[in-house]
Design a protein that fits this description.
The chain is of the alpha+beta class and 718 residues long. It has 4 domains: 1-117 and 267-386 and 574-604, 3-Layer(aba) Sandwich (Rossmann fold); 118-246, Beta Complex (Methionyl-trna Synthetase, domain 2); 409-552, Orthogonal Bundle (Isoleucyl-tRNA Synthetase, Domain 1), CATH 1.10.730.10; 615-717, Beta Barrel (OB fold (Dihydrolipoamide Acetyltransferase, E2P)), CATH 2.40.50. Helices cover 40% and strands 17% of the residues. It has 22 helices and 28 strands. The strands form 9 sheets. Strands 19, 20, 21, 22, 25 and 28 form a 6-stranded antiparallel sheet that branches. Strands 3-2-1-15 form a 4-stranded parallel sheet. The N and C termini lie far apart (73 Å).
């Protein structure tokens, strides 16, 4: 196996047009988090990167549906993602967003590099055009029947039913998502990545794990369905793929390129580059060298994704990286399959999902219970199933009856027999051990057995087998329980106190080992247990490696004489009523709008009221409906936009401090509420005549106050 000095781990960028559900969580984020937390505890130099994917047609589709700007959509979900990931314990080193200027710059530099190398083919082709909206239709603006499985609601880039990657022209009976009409084909020019030219080295990379004639990775360590999907694509013959789109939202094709006007980077060109821009931003803030993680051959790149993203991460993005030159390609892409829900596929459109942000709100304190159940049922090799009864059973039978009861019993007995102090013991005293060999029964031999149990957990994590790793973790608990049952210290404490000292010291070692080994899986519980044991918090700087070294060298991980805190139950039982409530909610909410409460995104913050005014004061204010008809940035003023306002009966020039929240092109045509009789004032040499009224929260975020669409311009607002 190739040894690396440092590791870069990415998790799939969540698309900022809807909240996260449990399928997302167990698809990419939980496995990545377990792996990273484990590697940190083993003292590895590892960076965990992610961010919101904020471009592409799906964003503008949602904005159109909700009558909002794309910026409003992405800001809402970016904030929700951050809060959700933090709430469920996903430990990113950095969480970025693709709307950030640094990302735009990085993506454009990438594209220009490939263009200057002559990597693209400029191809004029016929693409679908919607006559009603007078625009070319991006992949996601087109739905039709999938030619592979017959799904009548397949998108132009992918069928979410069978997972097949598609082109819009592949669809049978294509329809425009915007108008519902059948689009016509019109000619347009785009830049294509000639994957067909790279087929030989891509096949060698995927099938043999070699790159440029040298060993790159072991393909036997890749999951069968990952290799299978890639091989199927390659065997079907790789085709050139357009890297640009006719869109009004996304990263601009660099203006240095002739014909770039009105063209945006394909979201699957720009999105994975988000891993790079996120690393750049992390490195900038941490005063690190980002290039060492992406370009040093002794650095490893690992992508955690769902199976619908396999081709993009295994073929298209590696092709982009290699053609650019100087970047590492992934050593593994441990993609998971899909999780189903109560007998059906998770469906965001039908609201058939367990939304993670709602779980955190409605079931506080059960974060680790959800993590546990999702890991236990992680769809690593095949699709799996989430059921609320299964969640309840796993919590009650495994976390309560096994893990929590074992730990509580050990700590309670320690307080009962030794006033909470770890007992010393006679190393020559023999007990009924669990090691199972001729040396079993001696304290040092039993510790080595514990060492082996921990190493089994570690080995499974290294192999990306997180279900098996979780089982191995619970085997530690089972062994600890067996140690108590074999010796029954509550029966022999008075007659054989020396034996009980050995048993209890060993049992406390099991609990101490669990407090560290469980951290990648149950981070919130690990914190609680470490406090009960009066052990220092884990700072993820090699503590697990140090603990294993201590055991291997015959040292103790919790010393005799150490004082522990009072025992508490880490988990308590979930009753049927609580679970039934969630089942009823799921069935009730099906086919209803996905609920997003602003209170789930951020805690309510209210600015204080200003001093009271009289009605006569208010009557002097003349507020009207208006429309923004032109917008441009004010030179040498990062926060200011110069706006042209149509009041219906006259036009005004206004300077507004909204540039950090809205781009000029986003707000043209936007109806607004306008303070018309505000005295003019000069800003940056521009006469500003009036004020657009905005809503502002306690953090200073601004959003438009919208007038009803069918009001005529200049209507009085009272």
């Amino acid at each position: 196996m190739i040894q690396f000095k440092r590791h870069l781990v990415t998790a799939a960028l969540p698309y900022a047009n809807g909240p996260l559900h449990v399928g997302h969580l167990c698809g990419a984020y939980l496995p990545a988090d377990i792996y990273v937390r484990f590697q940190r505890l083993m003292g590895k130099d590892i960076v965990f990167i992610c961010g919101s994917d904020e471009h592409g047609a799906a964003i503008t589709m949602r904005a159109l549906k909700e009558k909002k700007t794309p910026s409003e959509i992405i800001n809402t979900y970016h904030e929700l993602f951050q809060k959700t990931f933090q709430g469920i314990g996903i430990s990113f080193d950095y969480y970025h967003r693709t709307s950030d200027p640094l990302h735009h710059q990085t993506s454009q530099e990438f594209f220009l590099n490939l263009y200057n190398k002559g990597a693209f083919r400029e191809i004029e082709s016929e693409q679908f055009y919607d006559l009603s909206s007078q625009q070319f239709l991006a992949d996601r603006y087109i739905v039709g029947t999938c030619p592979k499985c017959g799904n009548e609601n397949a998108y132009g880039d992918q069928c979410e039913n069978c997972g097949s990657s598609l082109n819009p022209t592949d669809l049978i009976n294509p329809k425009s998502v915007i108008s519902g009409e059948t689009p016509e084909k019109r000619k347009t020019k785009h830049w294509y990545l000639p994957l067909d030219e790279y087929e030989t080295w891509i096949k060698d990379f995927i099938v043999n794990g070699t790159l440029d004639g040298q060993e790159h990775h072991d393909p036997d360590l890749w999951k069968n369905h990952v290799l299978g999907q890639c091989k199927s694509w390659i065997e079907g013959g790789l085709q050139p793929r357009a890297m640009t789109r006719d869109l009004d939202w996304g990263v601009d094709v660099p203006k240095e390129i002739p014909g770039s006007e009105g063209k945006k980077l394909y979201v699957w060109m720009d999105a994975p580059i988000g891993y790079i821009s996120s690393t750049k931003q992390w490195a900038k803030e941490q005063n690190k060298d980002w290039e060492s993680y992406w370009k040093d051959p002794e650095s490893e790149l690992i992508h955690f994704i769902g199976k619908d993203n396999i081709v993009f991460h295994c073929i298209i993005f590696p092709a982009i990286l290699k053609v650019h030159g100087g970047y590492n390609l992934p050593s593994n892409v441990p993609a998971n399959q899909f999780m189903n829900l109560e007998g059906n596929k998770i469906s965001t459109s039908r609201n058939w999902a367990v939304w993670v942000h709602e779980f955190l709100e409605e079931l506080p304190g059960l974060e680790d219970s959800l993590r546990y159940y999702l890991i236990k049922n992680m769809p690593e090799q095949k699709d799996s199933e989430f059921t609320w009864k299964g969640f309840q059973d796993a919590h009650n039978n495994e976390l309560v009856n096994n893990l929590s009861n074992f730990i509580h019993r050990v700590l309670s007995l320690t307080h009962k027999y030794y006033k909470g102090v770890v007992p010393d013991f006679d190393p020559d005293e023999i007990i009924e051990g669990v090691a199972g060999d001729e040396l079993g029964g001696f304290h040092d031999a039993e510790l080595i057995y514990l060492f082996d149990l921990i190493q089994e957990v570690n080995q499974h994590i290294r192999e990306y087998d997180f279900r098996a790793a979780l089982k191995a973790l619970m085997d530690i608990c089972t062994a600890g329980n067996q140690l108590l049952q074999n010796n029954e210290p509550w029966k022999i404490q008075k007659s054989q106190p020396e034996t009980v000292e050995v048993v209890m010291n060993l049992a406390l070692h099991y609990v101490a080992a669990l407090s560290m080994t469980m951290q990648p899986f149950l981070p919130f519980t690990a914190i609680k247990l470490r406090k009960m044991l009066n052990l220092p918090d884990l700072n993820a700087s090699g503590e697990l490696e140090d603990m294993l070294t201590k055991i291997a060298e015959g040292e103790f991980i919790i010393e005799a004489g150490h004082k522990i805190e009072e025992a508490q139950y880490l988990f308590t039982r979930l009753d049927d009523e609580l679970i039934q409530k969630q089942i009823d909610k799921l069935h009730h909410s099906e086919n209803q709008t996905i609920p997003i409460n602003s209170e789930t995104i951020m805690e309510s913050k209210h600015l204080p009221l200003k001093e009271t005014i009289s009605y006569d004061d208010f009557a002097k204010v003349d507020v009207r409906t208006a429309k923004i008809i032109a917008a441009e940035k004010v030179a040498k003023a990062d926060k200011l936009l110069k706006l042209e306002i149509d009041l219906g009966f006259e036009k005004r020039t206004v300077v507004s401090g909204i540039a950090e929240y809205y781009k000029p092109e986003e707000i043209i045509g936007r109806q607004v509420v306008f303070l018309a009789n505000l005295a003019p004032r000069k800003l940056k040499g521009i006469d500003s005549n009036g004020m657009i009224l905005m809503a502002e929260d306690a953090d200073g975020r601004l959003t438009f106050i919208s007038a009803k669409e069918d009001w005529y311009l200049g209507s009085v607002v009272k």
